[in-house]
Amino acid sequence: MGYSIRTALYQSDLTKIFIALFLIGIVISVYQGLLESLGTRIIRKISTEPSSHEE
To answer: Where does the chain cross the membrane (predicted)?
Structure first.
C-alpha cells in the first residue's frame, strides 16, 4: 500500500493517491470489524464459562 502511494506521489497523480487512501481505509475498516467481532466472541466465551473460583 505504501508503495502505491509513494509511486503516485512521484507521478503527482491525485487519482492514484485517492484510490490508494480509499483502499487503505477499506482494509482498516475490515480489520477493525474482525477485531471487534473476535473480541465480542472472547468476552461471551469468558462470561459463559463457569468460574473456577466459584464452588
So the answer is: 17-35
16-25 residues labelled b (16+ CB within 10 A) or e (exposed): ebeebeeeee
Q: How far apart are the first and last CA of the chain?
A: 53
A 10 A CB-CB count for 27 gives 11
Cell 472472547 sits at which residue?
A: 42
**The model's pTM:** 0.57
Q: Quick one: which of 35, 33, 9 has its CA closest to 21?
A: 9
pLDDT given at position 19:
86
Contact 16, 8 (CB under 8 A): yes
The stretches of 1-55 forming alpha helices (DSSP H) are: 2-11, 14-48
